[in-house]
Amino acid sequence: MAEAALDALRERLNRFHALNAAAGVLDWDMETRMPRAGAASRALQYGAVLRAAHETLVDAQTLRLVDALAPRFSRADDESGDAALWRWAERETRRRRLLPAALVEDLARATARAQDVWAEARAKSDFALFRPELERVLALKRRQAEALAPAGDLYYAWLGEHEPGLTTADVDRLFSQLEPGLSALARAAAARAPSARPPALSGRFDVARQRVLGEAAARLIGFDFSRGMIDESAHPFSCALSLGDVRLTTRYDESDPFSNVFTVLHEAGHGLYEQGVDPALADTPLCGGATMALHESQSRLWENLVGRGRPFWTAFLPRLREIFPSTSALGLDEVLAHVNRAQPSFIRVEADELTYSLHVLLRYDLERRLLSGALRVAELPEAWNAGMRARLGVTPPDDAHGVLQDVHWSAGLFGYFPTYALGNMISVQLYEAARKARPGMEECLSRGDAQPLLSWLRENVHRHGRAFSAEQIVRRACGGPISAAPYLAYLRGKYAA
Amino acid sequence: MAEAALDALRERLNRFHALNAAAGVLDWDMETRMPRAGAASRALQYGAVLRAAHETLVDAQTLRLVDALAPRFSRADDESGDAALWRWAERETRRRRLLPAALVEDLARATARAQDVWAEARAKSDFALFRPELERVLALKRRQAEALAPAGDLYYAWLGEHEPGLTTADVDRLFSQLEPGLSALARAAAARAPSARPPALSGRFDVARQRVLGEAAARLIGFDFSRGMIDESAHPFSCALSLGDVRLTTRYDESDPFSNVFTVLHEAGHGLYEQGVDPALADTPLCGGATMALHESQSRLWENLVGRGRPFWTAFLPRLREIFPSTSALGLDEVLAHVNRAQPSFIRVEADELTYSLHVLLRYDLERRLLSGALRVAELPEAWNAGMRARLGVTPPDDAHGVLQDVHWSAGLFGYFPTYALGNMISVQLYEAARKARPGMEECLSRGDAQPLLSWLRENVHRHGRAFSAEQIVRRACGGPISAAPYLAYLRGKYAA
What is the ipTM, given to two decimal places? Predict the structure, then answer.
């Protein structure tokens, strides 16, 4: 009887998961392949699929099954896979049953349309073009927050979509630990003269060869191309359509061979997480990264702690020189100095490790003011620029380098940005725990073998999928809670010197 | 009140359409981009989307709305768009409500899996690998037919999915008009010595240049690349994801520059139909080709009546010579003789105009025997080869050139093949009606202007979408019913000389 109920629940949850993955295919196609003339209809298709997913999850029969199984699984210390699945279902149905299906569909349609308009607005640096779309998305996101948190923490309604388990108060506490130290380090860096670009990097770097270089970087850290691929898009992203189909995108800058490499390392970091989930969880809602902060901890770990370090470049510099012979005079120390220079800049995704989180703090602040009504969309470009001056000491030359740079808000991804800074913190905690557990891992990495690090991450993070919260995974893997201190200490060691 | 009911029905029908289009995106991606390791999960995703579409169409509320609106729209001569939509809904719900949702989902999953295995089996020419998949698909298709036609014409349950409006008896009657004349012409052609390959066609033809040539052919006949694209896949196909997003695929043979050109003309013929639907029908279930026979009439018209004719090559030969200078010695008559040679061969999609329909008649015969139980899947390769000998006088050297050549059965597309031969018949009826209505159209075509023909097709066929049946469209456009006689007369004029 209980087995039949569990099977019936599992079937519905897996169908929800399959419909979400299908929406992922639509989204991937929209970003990489679809002609713009298809955008309006695609918004309807995307809305219909996400509505069907929502209705599958919150229909009366699913809710009855979740309730019926509560006595069996409500012990919080039950670590069985079935209990983890039930807990996921209990949490998600409790949250999502508060949302009307029409709102889910409207939001999906509005964000699909807004992303299309955002791309044009960014290309033209024309905020006025984007403004009505953003206003529409924000109004729907506010209705969503009000439906989810009728009496409580409104911002958590956004945050919890990406980071279930952390409250807005948790984020405030962690960010208040981070900000003073970070700002002081950034001010010191800004006062130093910018380092000159090595002459060997002044040429053009052919895109076809950059593609080979990016794939080599992904392969070095262990990305499995038989279960994934790298494509091209305006705004790089990764998506896991299934355990056997994990996709990344990158973009190419002909004047800079590093931009693509770091983009690939970042996105492949996400991809490794998705490829590393226990196959027993395949095609269930537990197949995927636990939270976005944990996901960003993986992308930032490979991009920064590995990708800007001496062991990685010891192994990878020969590949760069081989693929681009014009860099054959470039020395290891010169590369390390180049990829670790720190200077305030306009674009978050191109920011150095030191100033990166300041970009995030700005967005977090703006989102809270937009939600409370203290800031209107029309005032956003000015507030953005004022925030950049206050936090980073620079003023964007135009909105393309300012408020229009990120796709997130057009996609309805409010409450997402904090997870980047949280991911930075966690990345250092995990890297240090891994180094303690696998003392030879950096030596292996400098010989081109990332397996010791990757297998530790697989064991301690990836394989669990969504069976545990970010906080649980960090406590188990690192022996303590999520904390800003190790990250600040790491940055101080690197940039205060 | 009636307006509210109509709006509510329209919303549901459009959501059904959007979910089907979403399944189209999944399918397109599966054929062109997905890594094979993603196949098993993709089958689940595809099943979930098609199940959601089905449930949207046949849920109690949709059925109530269709019934409630019957008094308003049941007059068969009501040509309003609303009446056409209601008629479509009445027919499709009457048909689909007989199908259990679980069967729809099982069939979608089984066909997604079977297509993946079919591709491998064809590559290895290994029918044994494919056999269990085909048995599973056939068993589900038989259950589907039994659910749809509990007491009647079982084969129509398959046929009607692609060709609503024509019964199995109609097809039998049309094919019995076609077969004797066709067989006699084919026997006469087989007795003639095969024509030699022009020496200018003996080289290698670079794929990148073939891509340019194919795009030039599509552009010449009017395909709109701002609302579509050409990609590559193992089995060429076309799909309309929306009015603004119509996709074709082709494949390249480095030893033959014509194969890709004819594939593109064929698939772009489908694409022109989809791009030509009245924008007022966009994002509704009436947006698309009326039936598959009409669809194939469009692809075969552009591939054969245009693409193998003197006017087209008068305009296009200079492009071929320009892109492949090695063909600059090739004369117009030589090209026409080459692309119109007729000889029995193994592969349907590469068959000449004369023998093509014989391949179809074979498949129609085998499908009927599979459905009745007179033929088992295990016996299929032998029955295929025997049928090829009897109808075309040739024996396939292996199953890759025989029973494994087509994707259709793996995709559950039983009852589809007849529409190719019906499309051949209709293509001649429409082409002749167009030539009568636009006497200068071939002269325009020989100057590279396909608009007179295209605009006639737009007016008389494309714009109507699914508002009328194939028979209605042919009667209006050509002044008579679908008939084999014009097609046979055309073939006689061309091949009996």
Answer: 0.94
